[in-house]
UniProtKB/TrEMBL annotation, chains A, B:
Domain HTH crp-type positions: 155-224
Protein keywords: DNA-binding, Transcription, Transcription regulation
Name by which UniProt lists this protein: Crp/Fnr family transcriptional regulator
Domain Cyclic nucleotide-binding: 20-121
Keyword Calcium (UniProt): no
Species annotation: Gramella jeungdoensis
Entry-linked SUPFAM superfamilies: cAMP-binding domain-like, Winged helix' DNA-binding domain
InterPro entries assigned to the protein according to its UniProt record, in alphabetical order: cNMP-bd_dom, cNMP-bd_dom_sf, HTH_CRP, RmlC-like_jellyroll, WH-like_DNA-bd_sf, WH_DNA-bd_sf
Annotated SMART domains: HTH_CRP (SM00419)
Amino acid sequence: MATENKLFDKYIPVLKNCELFNGMTNEHWRELLVNFHEEKWPKETCMVNHQKFLFHFYIIVSGRIKMYNVDEFSEKEHTLFLLKESDVFDLFCLMDGTRHHVYYECLDNIKVLAIPMDKLKLWLNKNPVYYQHFLSYAGKMMRMLESNVSQLIFTDISTRLLRLLVNNVNSNSKQLEHINDLPNKEIANLIGSTRAVVNRHLQRLKKNGSIKIARKQVEIKDISILLKELENQNKKI
Amino acid sequence: MATENKLFDKYIPVLKNCELFNGMTNEHWRELLVNFHEEKWPKETCMVNHQKFLFHFYIIVSGRIKMYNVDEFSEKEHTLFLLKESDVFDLFCLMDGTRHHVYYECLDNIKVLAIPMDKLKLWLNKNPVYYQHFLSYAGKMMRMLESNVSQLIFTDISTRLLRLLVNNVNSNSKQLEHINDLPNKEIANLIGSTRAVVNRHLQRLKKNGSIKIARKQVEIKDISILLKELENQNKKI
DNA sequence: GAAGTTATGCTACTTAGGTAGTTTGCATTT
DNA sequence: AAATGCAAACTACCTAAGTAGCATAACTTC
Protein backbone atom coordinates (compact mmCIF):
# COMPACT_ATOMS: atom_id res chain seq x y z
CA MET A 1 0.00 0.00 0.00
CA ALA A 2 2.83 2.34 0.80
CA THR A 3 4.64 1.71 -2.50
CA GLU A 4 1.95 2.89 -4.87
CA ASN A 5 1.21 5.93 -2.75
CA LYS A 6 4.87 6.75 -2.85
CA LEU A 7 4.99 6.33 -6.62
CA PHE A 8 1.89 8.41 -7.05
CA ASP A 9 3.05 11.23 -4.79
CA LYS A 10 6.46 11.20 -6.39
CA TYR A 11 5.19 11.48 -9.94
CA ILE A 12 1.83 13.24 -9.67
CA PRO A 13 2.59 15.91 -12.27
CA VAL A 14 3.98 13.41 -14.77
CA LEU A 15 1.12 10.97 -14.35
CA LYS A 16 -1.56 13.63 -14.46
CA ASN A 17 -0.03 14.81 -17.71
CA CYS A 18 -0.34 11.37 -19.24
CA GLU A 19 -2.75 11.70 -22.12
CA LEU A 20 -3.69 8.03 -22.22
CA PHE A 21 -5.11 8.23 -18.69
CA ASN A 22 -6.48 11.69 -19.16
CA GLY A 23 -8.83 12.73 -16.36
CA MET A 24 -8.36 9.61 -14.29
CA THR A 25 -9.26 10.00 -10.61
CA ASN A 26 -6.62 9.75 -7.90
CA GLU A 27 -8.34 6.65 -6.57
CA HIS A 28 -8.07 4.87 -9.88
CA TRP A 29 -4.45 5.94 -10.18
CA ARG A 30 -3.62 4.47 -6.79
CA GLU A 31 -5.46 1.29 -7.66
CA LEU A 32 -3.56 0.95 -10.92
CA LEU A 33 -0.19 1.91 -9.48
CA VAL A 34 -0.25 -1.08 -7.14
CA ASN A 35 0.95 -3.10 -10.10
CA PHE A 36 3.71 -0.75 -11.16
CA HIS A 37 7.36 -0.72 -10.24
CA GLU A 38 10.09 1.74 -11.10
CA GLU A 39 12.97 0.96 -13.46
CA LYS A 40 16.06 2.91 -14.41
CA TRP A 41 17.82 2.49 -17.73
CA PRO A 42 21.13 4.21 -18.46
CA LYS A 43 21.63 6.50 -21.44
CA GLU A 44 22.34 4.73 -24.72
CA THR A 45 20.63 1.54 -23.62
CA CYS A 46 19.47 -0.10 -26.80
CA MET A 47 16.54 -2.47 -26.90
CA VAL A 48 16.25 -4.58 -29.97
CA ASN A 49 13.06 -6.59 -30.21
CA HIS A 50 13.16 -7.22 -26.53
CA GLN A 51 10.85 -10.03 -25.47
CA LYS A 52 10.19 -8.04 -22.34
CA PHE A 53 8.27 -5.46 -24.33
CA LEU A 54 5.56 -7.93 -25.12
CA PHE A 55 5.05 -8.48 -21.44
CA HIS A 56 5.35 -5.01 -19.98
CA PHE A 57 3.86 -1.62 -20.49
CA TYR A 58 5.81 1.51 -19.59
CA ILE A 59 5.21 5.11 -18.62
CA ILE A 60 8.23 7.34 -19.02
CA VAL A 61 8.79 9.57 -16.02
CA SER A 62 12.03 11.15 -17.12
CA GLY A 63 14.34 11.19 -20.14
CA ARG A 64 13.87 10.56 -23.83
CA ILE A 65 13.60 7.29 -25.74
CA LYS A 66 13.60 7.10 -29.51
CA MET A 67 11.49 4.48 -31.17
CA TYR A 68 12.89 3.73 -34.58
CA ASN A 69 12.88 1.54 -37.61
CA VAL A 70 15.82 0.20 -39.58
CA ASP A 71 15.71 -0.68 -43.25
CA GLU A 72 17.11 -4.15 -43.52
CA PHE A 73 18.83 -3.47 -46.82
CA SER A 74 20.15 0.07 -46.73
CA GLU A 75 20.52 -0.01 -42.92
CA LYS A 76 19.12 3.48 -42.79
CA GLU A 77 17.32 4.51 -39.63
CA HIS A 78 14.05 6.33 -39.28
CA THR A 79 12.90 7.67 -35.93
CA LEU A 80 9.14 7.11 -35.64
CA PHE A 81 8.60 8.73 -32.27
CA LEU A 82 10.70 10.61 -29.79
CA LEU A 83 9.08 9.48 -26.54
CA LYS A 84 9.45 11.63 -23.44
CA GLU A 85 8.08 12.28 -19.99
CA SER A 86 4.42 11.22 -19.70
CA ASP A 87 4.55 9.17 -22.90
CA VAL A 88 3.73 5.48 -22.84
CA PHE A 89 4.83 2.42 -24.79
CA ASP A 90 4.25 0.06 -26.35
CA LEU A 91 0.63 0.74 -27.03
CA PHE A 92 0.72 -1.49 -30.11
CA CYS A 93 1.63 -4.57 -28.12
CA LEU A 94 -1.06 -3.74 -25.60
CA MET A 95 -3.62 -3.38 -28.33
CA ASP A 96 -3.11 -6.50 -30.33
CA GLY A 97 -0.66 -8.53 -28.32
CA THR A 98 1.70 -9.22 -31.19
CA ARG A 99 5.33 -8.27 -31.47
CA HIS A 100 6.11 -4.79 -32.67
CA HIS A 101 9.03 -4.68 -35.06
CA VAL A 102 10.75 -1.54 -33.93
CA TYR A 103 13.83 -0.63 -31.95
CA TYR A 104 14.27 1.52 -28.89
CA GLU A 105 17.22 3.55 -27.66
CA CYS A 106 17.54 5.72 -24.57
CA LEU A 107 18.79 9.19 -25.42
CA ASP A 108 19.12 10.07 -21.73
CA ASN A 109 19.19 8.27 -18.43
CA ILE A 110 15.68 6.95 -18.17
CA LYS A 111 13.19 6.37 -15.41
CA VAL A 112 10.06 4.42 -16.25
CA LEU A 113 7.14 2.96 -14.38
CA ALA A 114 6.53 -0.60 -15.55
CA ILE A 115 3.48 -2.82 -15.33
CA PRO A 116 3.04 -6.41 -16.54
CA MET A 117 0.90 -6.34 -19.65
CA ASP A 118 -1.61 -8.88 -18.35
CA LYS A 119 -2.16 -6.91 -15.16
CA LEU A 120 -2.93 -3.81 -17.20
CA LYS A 121 -5.35 -5.85 -19.28
CA LEU A 122 -7.02 -7.21 -16.16
CA TRP A 123 -7.36 -3.74 -14.71
CA LEU A 124 -8.81 -2.54 -18.01
CA ASN A 125 -11.39 -5.31 -17.98
CA LYS A 126 -12.31 -4.38 -14.45
CA ASN A 127 -12.65 -0.73 -15.46
CA PRO A 128 -13.99 -0.88 -19.02
CA VAL A 129 -14.70 2.83 -18.87
CA TYR A 130 -11.05 3.36 -19.75
CA TYR A 131 -11.35 1.44 -23.00
CA GLN A 132 -12.86 4.62 -24.37
CA HIS A 133 -9.73 6.52 -23.28
CA PHE A 134 -7.49 4.02 -24.94
CA LEU A 135 -9.49 4.10 -28.15
CA SER A 136 -9.47 7.85 -28.40
CA TYR A 137 -5.77 7.97 -27.64
CA ALA A 138 -5.16 5.39 -30.35
CA GLY A 139 -7.25 7.53 -32.65
CA LYS A 140 -5.04 10.50 -31.95
CA MET A 141 -1.92 8.49 -32.68
CA MET A 142 -3.40 7.32 -35.94
CA ARG A 143 -4.17 10.86 -37.02
CA MET A 144 -0.61 11.79 -36.17
CA LEU A 145 0.79 8.94 -38.24
CA GLU A 146 -1.56 9.82 -41.06
CA SER A 147 -0.49 13.44 -41.20
CA ASN A 148 3.07 12.21 -41.00
CA VAL A 149 2.55 10.17 -44.15
CA SER A 150 1.03 13.08 -46.00
CA GLN A 151 3.78 15.42 -44.93
CA LEU A 152 6.37 13.04 -46.28
CA ILE A 153 4.62 13.03 -49.63
CA PHE A 154 3.74 16.68 -49.92
CA THR A 155 6.75 18.49 -48.53
CA ASP A 156 10.49 18.63 -49.14
CA ILE A 157 13.28 18.20 -46.64
CA SER A 158 13.72 21.90 -46.06
CA THR A 159 10.05 22.28 -45.06
CA ARG A 160 10.13 19.20 -42.89
CA LEU A 161 13.16 20.56 -41.06
CA LEU A 162 11.54 23.94 -40.54
CA ARG A 163 8.40 22.27 -39.19
CA LEU A 164 10.43 20.09 -36.85
CA LEU A 165 12.14 23.17 -35.43
CA VAL A 166 9.01 25.27 -35.10
CA ASN A 167 7.02 22.43 -33.51
CA ASN A 168 9.63 21.96 -30.81
CA VAL A 169 9.84 25.52 -29.59
CA ASN A 170 8.52 25.80 -26.06
CA SER A 171 5.78 28.40 -26.15
CA ASN A 172 6.79 29.84 -22.78
CA SER A 173 10.56 29.91 -22.94
CA LYS A 174 10.61 30.40 -26.75
CA GLN A 175 13.52 28.00 -26.69
CA LEU A 176 14.01 24.81 -28.65
CA GLU A 177 13.36 21.73 -26.53
CA HIS A 178 13.52 17.94 -26.87
CA ILE A 179 15.61 18.08 -30.05
CA ASN A 180 17.99 20.93 -29.24
CA ASP A 181 20.89 18.71 -28.20
CA LEU A 182 20.74 16.13 -30.98
CA PRO A 183 23.51 15.63 -33.54
CA ASN A 184 22.65 16.33 -37.19
CA LYS A 185 22.40 12.60 -37.81
CA GLU A 186 19.54 12.20 -35.32
CA ILE A 187 17.72 15.19 -36.75
CA ALA A 188 18.07 13.59 -40.17
CA ASN A 189 16.55 10.35 -38.84
CA LEU A 190 13.58 12.29 -37.54
CA ILE A 191 12.67 13.81 -40.88
CA GLY A 192 13.80 10.95 -43.11
CA SER A 193 16.93 12.43 -44.62
CA THR A 194 20.70 12.24 -44.26
CA ARG A 195 23.23 14.07 -42.13
CA ALA A 196 24.81 15.90 -45.05
CA VAL A 197 21.53 17.24 -46.36
CA VAL A 198 20.30 18.34 -42.94
CA ASN A 199 23.57 20.11 -42.32
CA ARG A 200 23.28 21.87 -45.68
CA HIS A 201 19.88 23.28 -44.66
CA LEU A 202 21.01 24.15 -41.13
CA GLN A 203 23.92 26.11 -42.60
CA ARG A 204 21.44 28.09 -44.70
CA LEU A 205 19.34 28.86 -41.62
CA LYS A 206 22.45 29.86 -39.72
CA LYS A 207 23.43 32.27 -42.50
CA ASN A 208 20.03 33.95 -42.52
CA GLY A 209 20.32 34.48 -38.78
CA SER A 210 17.40 32.37 -37.61
CA ILE A 211 19.40 29.82 -35.66
CA LYS A 212 22.71 29.33 -33.89
CA ILE A 213 24.49 26.00 -34.12
CA ALA A 214 27.29 24.29 -32.25
CA ARG A 215 28.36 20.73 -31.69
CA LYS A 216 25.17 18.84 -30.74
CA GLN A 217 23.38 22.09 -30.21
CA VAL A 218 20.74 24.01 -32.11
CA GLU A 219 19.38 27.24 -30.72
CA ILE A 220 16.61 29.44 -32.06
CA LYS A 221 17.73 33.04 -32.54
CA ASP A 222 14.80 34.45 -34.47
CA ILE A 223 11.70 32.33 -34.87
CA SER A 224 9.97 34.92 -37.05
CA ILE A 225 12.48 34.20 -39.83
CA LEU A 226 11.71 30.49 -39.56
CA LEU A 227 7.98 31.17 -39.76
CA LYS A 228 8.44 33.41 -42.77
CA GLU A 229 10.54 30.74 -44.49
CA LEU A 230 7.81 28.19 -43.84
CA GLU A 231 5.22 30.44 -45.44
CA ASN A 232 7.38 30.96 -48.50
CA GLN A 233 7.98 27.23 -48.82
CA ASN A 234 4.26 26.75 -49.08
CA LYS A 235 3.75 29.50 -51.61
CA LYS A 236 6.37 28.41 -54.12
CA ILE A 237 3.98 26.24 -56.15
CA MET B 1 -37.07 -7.81 -36.93
CA ALA B 2 -37.36 -8.80 -40.55
CA THR B 3 -35.06 -6.03 -41.77
CA GLU B 4 -31.90 -6.97 -39.94
CA ASN B 5 -32.38 -10.63 -40.73
CA LYS B 6 -32.71 -9.69 -44.38
CA LEU B 7 -29.56 -7.55 -44.23
CA PHE B 8 -27.66 -10.28 -42.46
CA ASP B 9 -28.75 -13.05 -44.82
CA LYS B 10 -28.07 -10.86 -47.82
CA TYR B 11 -24.54 -9.95 -46.77
CA ILE B 12 -23.34 -12.87 -44.65
CA PRO B 13 -20.08 -13.41 -46.55
CA VAL B 14 -19.21 -9.73 -46.56
CA LEU B 15 -19.98 -9.22 -42.88
CA LYS B 16 -18.23 -12.38 -41.77
CA ASN B 17 -15.19 -11.16 -43.64
CA CYS B 18 -15.19 -7.90 -41.72
CA GLU B 19 -11.99 -7.83 -39.71
CA LEU B 20 -13.23 -5.32 -37.17
CA PHE B 21 -15.97 -7.70 -36.05
CA ASN B 22 -13.85 -10.78 -36.45
CA GLY B 23 -15.40 -13.88 -34.90
CA MET B 24 -18.63 -12.19 -33.87
CA THR B 25 -21.54 -14.59 -33.33
CA ASN B 26 -24.60 -14.54 -35.58
CA GLU B 27 -26.72 -13.47 -32.64
CA HIS B 28 -24.57 -10.43 -32.00
CA TRP B 29 -24.60 -9.59 -35.68
CA ARG B 30 -28.37 -9.67 -35.77
CA GLU B 31 -28.57 -7.56 -32.64
CA LEU B 32 -26.21 -4.98 -34.10
CA LEU B 33 -27.79 -4.97 -37.56
CA VAL B 34 -31.10 -3.76 -36.13
CA ASN B 35 -29.56 -0.31 -36.21
CA PHE B 36 -28.21 -0.47 -39.74
CA HIS B 37 -29.76 0.61 -43.00
CA GLU B 38 -28.55 0.25 -46.54
CA GLU B 39 -27.37 3.16 -48.68
CA LYS B 40 -26.35 3.39 -52.32
CA TRP B 41 -23.94 6.00 -53.61
CA PRO B 42 -23.26 6.38 -57.33
CA LYS B 43 -19.77 6.20 -58.82
CA GLU B 44 -17.74 9.40 -58.56
CA THR B 45 -19.69 10.64 -55.56
CA CYS B 46 -17.32 12.89 -53.72
CA MET B 47 -17.60 13.55 -50.02
CA VAL B 48 -15.69 16.49 -48.73
CA ASN B 49 -15.67 16.83 -44.97
CA HIS B 50 -19.22 15.67 -44.82
CA GLN B 51 -20.84 16.40 -41.49
CA LYS B 52 -22.67 13.11 -41.87
CA PHE B 53 -19.44 11.23 -41.35
CA LEU B 54 -19.18 12.36 -37.79
CA PHE B 55 -22.58 10.85 -37.12
CA HIS B 56 -22.50 7.62 -39.05
CA PHE B 57 -20.34 4.58 -39.32
CA TYR B 58 -20.24 2.56 -42.53
CA ILE B 59 -19.47 -0.96 -43.69
CA ILE B 60 -18.83 -1.24 -47.40
CA VAL B 61 -20.67 -4.14 -48.98
CA SER B 62 -19.72 -3.49 -52.58
CA GLY B 63 -17.49 -1.16 -54.59
CA ARG B 64 -14.37 0.86 -53.81
CA ILE B 65 -13.99 4.17 -52.02
CA LYS B 66 -10.74 6.06 -51.88
CA MET B 67 -9.92 7.98 -48.75
CA TYR B 68 -7.49 10.74 -49.59
CA ASN B 69 -5.72 13.84 -48.52
CA VAL B 70 -5.13 17.04 -50.48
CA ASP B 71 -2.23 19.37 -49.94
CA GLU B 72 -3.73 22.81 -49.55
CA PHE B 73 -0.88 24.51 -51.35
CA SER B 74 0.26 22.23 -54.15
CA GLU B 75 -3.23 20.70 -54.49
CA LYS B 76 -1.60 17.33 -54.89
CA GLU B 77 -3.59 14.29 -53.81
CA HIS B 78 -2.48 11.35 -51.76
CA THR B 79 -4.67 8.28 -51.42
CA LEU B 80 -4.38 7.00 -47.86
CA PHE B 81 -6.58 3.94 -48.18
CA LEU B 82 -8.43 2.23 -50.94
CA LEU B 83 -11.44 0.92 -49.02
CA LYS B 84 -13.35 -2.02 -50.42
CA GLU B 85 -15.88 -4.72 -49.57
CA SER B 86 -15.83 -5.57 -45.84
CA ASP B 87 -13.87 -2.43 -44.95
CA VAL B 88 -15.28 0.09 -42.49
CA PHE B 89 -15.06 3.84 -42.00
CA ASP B 90 -14.55 6.17 -40.38
CA LEU B 91 -12.89 4.42 -37.48
CA PHE B 92 -11.11 7.62 -36.45
CA CYS B 93 -14.33 9.47 -35.84
CA LEU B 94 -15.67 6.52 -33.89
CA MET B 95 -12.58 6.44 -31.76
CA ASP B 96 -12.22 10.03 -30.71
CA GLY B 97 -15.37 11.70 -31.96
CA THR B 98 -13.58 14.56 -33.70
CA ARG B 99 -13.67 15.47 -37.34
CA HIS B 100 -11.32 13.65 -39.64
CA HIS B 101 -9.75 15.90 -42.23
CA VAL B 102 -9.80 13.65 -45.24
CA TYR B 103 -11.82 13.33 -48.42
CA TYR B 104 -13.73 10.40 -49.86
CA GLU B 105 -14.57 9.50 -53.43
CA CYS B 106 -16.48 6.51 -54.77
CA LEU B 107 -14.54 4.73 -57.50
CA ASP B 108 -17.51 2.47 -58.25
CA ASN B 109 -21.20 2.38 -57.53
CA ILE B 110 -21.28 1.80 -53.83
CA LYS B 111 -23.45 -0.06 -51.37
CA VAL B 112 -22.86 0.53 -47.67
CA LEU B 113 -24.52 -0.44 -44.45
CA ALA B 114 -24.84 2.62 -42.23
CA ILE B 115 -25.32 2.97 -38.49
CA PRO B 116 -25.66 6.12 -36.40
CA MET B 117 -22.43 6.61 -34.50
CA ASP B 118 -24.10 6.92 -31.10
CA LYS B 119 -25.99 3.68 -31.58
CA LEU B 120 -22.76 1.88 -32.33
CA LYS B 121 -21.26 3.42 -29.21
CA LEU B 122 -24.24 2.33 -27.13
CA TRP B 123 -24.00 -1.20 -28.49
CA LEU B 124 -20.28 -1.21 -27.74
CA ASN B 125 -20.93 -0.14 -24.15
CA LYS B 126 -23.48 -2.90 -23.84
CA ASN B 127 -21.00 -5.42 -25.23
CA PRO B 128 -17.63 -4.21 -23.92
CA VAL B 129 -16.09 -7.47 -25.04
CA TYR B 130 -15.83 -5.92 -28.48
CA TYR B 131 -13.70 -3.05 -27.26
CA GLN B 132 -10.86 -5.53 -27.39
CA HIS B 133 -11.68 -6.22 -31.05
CA PHE B 134 -11.72 -2.55 -31.84
CA LEU B 135 -8.45 -1.96 -30.05
CA SER B 136 -6.64 -4.74 -31.82
CA TYR B 137 -8.04 -3.65 -35.16
CA ALA B 138 -6.83 -0.12 -34.46
CA GLY B 139 -3.45 -1.60 -33.57
CA LYS B 140 -3.31 -3.31 -36.91
CA MET B 141 -4.15 -0.09 -38.73
CA MET B 142 -1.44 1.72 -36.82
CA ARG B 143 1.15 -0.85 -37.76
CA MET B 144 0.05 -0.49 -41.35
CA LEU B 145 0.41 3.29 -41.25
CA GLU B 146 3.75 2.93 -39.54
CA SER B 147 5.16 0.61 -42.17
CA ASN B 148 3.73 2.97 -44.75
CA VAL B 149 5.78 5.81 -43.29
CA SER B 150 8.95 3.75 -43.28
CA GLN B 151 8.40 2.58 -46.82
CA LEU B 152 8.07 6.16 -47.98
CA ILE B 153 11.38 6.98 -46.39
CA PHE B 154 13.35 3.90 -47.30
CA THR B 155 12.23 3.09 -50.81
CA ASP B 156 12.06 4.83 -54.18
CA ILE B 157 9.09 5.19 -56.49
CA SER B 158 10.04 2.22 -58.59
CA THR B 159 10.06 -0.10 -55.57
CA ARG B 160 6.83 1.34 -54.25
CA LEU B 161 5.16 0.72 -57.58
CA LEU B 162 6.45 -2.85 -57.73
CA ARG B 163 5.19 -3.50 -54.20
CA LEU B 164 1.79 -2.04 -55.04
CA LEU B 165 1.47 -4.36 -58.00
CA VAL B 166 2.68 -7.46 -56.21
CA ASN B 167 0.50 -6.83 -53.17
CA ASN B 168 -2.61 -6.61 -55.29
CA VAL B 169 -2.25 -9.85 -57.17
CA ASN B 170 -4.99 -12.28 -56.20
CA SER B 171 -3.27 -15.42 -55.01
CA ASN B 172 -5.86 -17.66 -56.62
CA SER B 173 -6.47 -16.07 -59.99
CA LYS B 174 -2.91 -14.66 -60.20
CA GLN B 175 -4.54 -11.57 -61.66
CA LEU B 176 -4.22 -7.97 -60.55
CA GLU B 177 -7.25 -6.82 -58.56
CA HIS B 178 -8.57 -3.65 -56.93
CA ILE B 179 -6.13 -1.41 -58.80
CA ASN B 180 -6.11 -3.01 -62.25
CA ASP B 181 -8.57 -0.53 -63.80
CA LEU B 182 -7.14 2.70 -62.41
CA PRO B 183 -5.65 5.43 -64.58
CA ASN B 184 -1.95 6.22 -64.07
CA LYS B 185 -2.91 9.32 -62.11
CA GLU B 186 -4.69 7.26 -59.44
CA ILE B 187 -1.80 4.83 -59.20
CA ALA B 188 0.48 7.81 -58.71
CA ASN B 189 -1.73 9.08 -55.88
CA LEU B 190 -1.49 5.72 -54.17
CA ILE B 191 2.30 5.70 -54.02
CA GLY B 192 2.87 9.42 -53.63
CA SER B 193 4.19 10.29 -57.06
CA THR B 194 3.01 11.87 -60.31
CA ARG B 195 1.35 10.50 -63.41
CA ALA B 196 4.37 11.09 -65.64
CA VAL B 197 6.76 9.27 -63.35
CA VAL B 198 4.44 6.32 -62.82
CA ASN B 199 4.00 6.05 -66.56
CA ARG B 200 7.77 6.09 -67.05
CA HIS B 201 8.13 3.10 -64.73
CA LEU B 202 5.16 1.26 -66.20
CA GLN B 203 6.70 1.62 -69.66
CA ARG B 204 9.86 0.02 -68.35
CA LEU B 205 7.87 -2.89 -66.91
CA LYS B 206 5.97 -3.24 -70.18
CA LYS B 207 9.25 -3.41 -72.10
CA ASN B 208 10.66 -6.16 -69.89
CA GLY B 209 7.50 -8.18 -70.47
CA SER B 210 6.17 -8.30 -66.91
CA ILE B 211 2.96 -6.35 -67.53
CA LYS B 212 0.53 -5.40 -70.27
CA ILE B 213 -1.01 -1.94 -70.26
CA ALA B 214 -3.93 -0.30 -71.97
CA ARG B 215 -6.14 2.68 -71.29
CA LYS B 216 -7.11 2.39 -67.63
CA GLN B 217 -5.88 -1.15 -67.53
CA VAL B 218 -2.86 -2.88 -66.06
CA GLU B 219 -2.49 -6.63 -66.40
CA ILE B 220 0.19 -8.90 -64.96
CA LYS B 221 1.87 -11.00 -67.63
CA ASP B 222 4.77 -12.46 -65.65
CA ILE B 223 4.88 -11.94 -61.93
CA SER B 224 8.25 -13.67 -61.56
CA ILE B 225 9.90 -10.77 -63.40
CA LEU B 226 8.27 -8.32 -60.98
CA LEU B 227 9.47 -10.34 -58.00
CA LYS B 228 12.99 -10.50 -59.40
CA GLU B 229 12.99 -6.74 -59.98
CA LEU B 230 11.88 -6.20 -56.38
CA GLU B 231 14.74 -8.31 -55.11
CA ASN B 232 17.25 -6.40 -57.21
CA GLN B 233 15.87 -3.07 -55.98
CA ASN B 234 16.63 -4.15 -52.47
CA LYS B 235 20.12 -5.34 -53.25
CA LYS B 236 21.36 -2.22 -55.01
CA ILE B 237 22.58 -0.54 -51.81
C1' DG C 1 48.48 16.55 -23.05
C1' DA C 2 48.57 12.98 -26.64
C1' DA C 3 45.84 9.85 -29.03
C1' DG C 4 41.62 8.54 -30.51
C1' DT C 5 36.82 9.33 -31.44
C1' DT C 6 32.81 11.77 -32.93
C1' DA C 7 30.47 15.73 -35.11
C1' DT C 8 30.54 19.29 -38.24
C1' DG C 9 31.46 21.97 -42.43
C1' DC C 10 32.27 21.95 -47.23
C1' DT C 11 33.24 20.63 -52.10
C1' DA C 12 32.24 18.13 -56.09
C1' DC C 13 29.49 14.83 -58.34
C1' DT C 14 25.41 11.77 -59.58
C1' DT C 15 20.80 10.75 -60.14
C1' DA C 16 15.90 9.96 -59.44
C1' DG C 17 12.07 12.29 -59.72
C1' DG C 18 9.36 16.30 -60.77
C1' DT C 19 7.78 19.56 -64.67
C1' DA C 20 6.20 21.15 -69.12
C1' DG C 21 4.59 20.47 -73.31
C1' DT C 22 3.30 17.86 -77.45
C1' DT C 23 1.56 13.93 -79.95
C1' DT C 24 -1.04 9.96 -80.37
C1' DG C 25 -4.79 7.07 -79.61
C1' DC C 26 -8.97 5.35 -77.63
C1' DA C 27 -13.75 6.04 -76.36
C1' DT C 28 -17.95 8.42 -75.64
C1' DT C 29 -21.41 11.59 -77.33
C1' DT C 30 -24.33 13.64 -80.61
C1' DA D 1 -19.02 9.51 -88.75
C1' DA D 2 -17.43 13.63 -86.88
C1' DA D 3 -16.26 15.84 -82.80
C1' DT D 4 -14.86 16.26 -78.31
C1' DG D 5 -12.35 14.88 -74.39
C1' DC D 6 -9.58 12.22 -71.63
C1' DA D 7 -5.58 9.07 -70.94
C1' DA D 8 -1.30 7.52 -72.30
C1' DA D 9 3.28 7.94 -74.46
C1' DC D 10 7.30 10.33 -75.07
C1' DT D 11 10.88 14.11 -75.18
C1' DA D 12 13.65 17.47 -73.08
C1' DC D 13 14.87 19.84 -69.15
C1' DC D 14 15.60 21.21 -64.14
C1' DT D 15 16.48 20.61 -59.43
C1' DA D 16 16.59 18.78 -54.75
C1' DA D 17 18.50 15.42 -52.46
C1' DG D 18 21.60 11.70 -51.93
C1' DT D 19 26.69 10.25 -52.01
C1' DA D 20 31.64 10.33 -51.28
C1' DG D 21 35.37 12.22 -49.44
C1' DC D 22 38.15 15.07 -46.66
C1' DA D 23 39.55 18.75 -43.39
C1' DT D 24 38.72 20.71 -39.18
C1' DA D 25 36.95 21.26 -34.59
C1' DA D 26 35.42 19.54 -30.23
C1' DC D 27 35.05 16.48 -26.95
C1' DT D 28 36.98 11.68 -24.31
C1' DT D 29 39.96 8.88 -22.09
C1' DC D 30 43.94 7.19 -20.69
